[in-house]
Design a protein that fits this description.
Distance between the termini: 35 Å
Number of helices: 8
Helix content: 40-55%
Low-confidence stretches: 144-161
């Protein structure tokens, strides 16, 4: 098992980029982001370390909830993995996998958010389960105690994510 995880970690693009959510390259000022001019991937964001990449996944999901009012797995995956970029079969597999991982369809609590984010990161990197590479970073990366403590999108958009 340890060998399989090590092999996946060496091969998976999201792991190599410290971007386990495979967040697309943009002008967003993510904390810990490798500047676009130094990005060697060209398609996906790169982060200096895994904790910042995981944090970006959480922040993006929180933005989806706060700004775009997306709450269900279907709504979020439709935006995360849009139909124009992914086959319907791939999207259906993605939704089924994440629901199985998250054990819920709605991001209603911090635990649900963590499970949902873990499902996305596992699927994006070809893992069958929420593996130990994510576990040590989740609390540090998320920096949340409950969803009610999160700032509304309008208040935080002036600061770096």
């Amino acid at each position: 098992m340890a060998y399989q995880i090590e092999e996946i970690m060496q091969q998976a693009r999201g792991i190599r980029n410290n971007n386990p959510g495979n967040i697309k390259l943009s002008n967003t000022a993510w904390q810990g982001k490798v500047p676009n001019a130094q990005n060697t991937d060209g398609t996906f964001e790169q982060f200096h370390d895994m904790a910042h990449g995981i944090r970006a996944v959480y922040r993006l999901l929180i933005t989806y909830a706060n700004k775009h009012k997306l709450r269900t797995v279907d709504e979020i995956i439709d935006r995360w993995a849009p139909s124009g970029e992914n086959s319907e079969t791939a999207r259906a597999n993605y939704k089924r996998f994440v629901i199985d991982q998250a054990k819920t369809e709605i991001m209603a609590t911090p635990a649900n958010l963590q499970d949902f984010a873990a499902g996305i990161m596992a699927f994006e990197n070809g893992l069958n389960q929420y593996t130990t590479f994510v576990k040590p970073f989740e609390a540090q990366a998320a920096q949340i105690s409950n969803l009610q403590d999160l700032e509304p999108y309008e208040q935080k958009k002036k600061i770096c994510l």
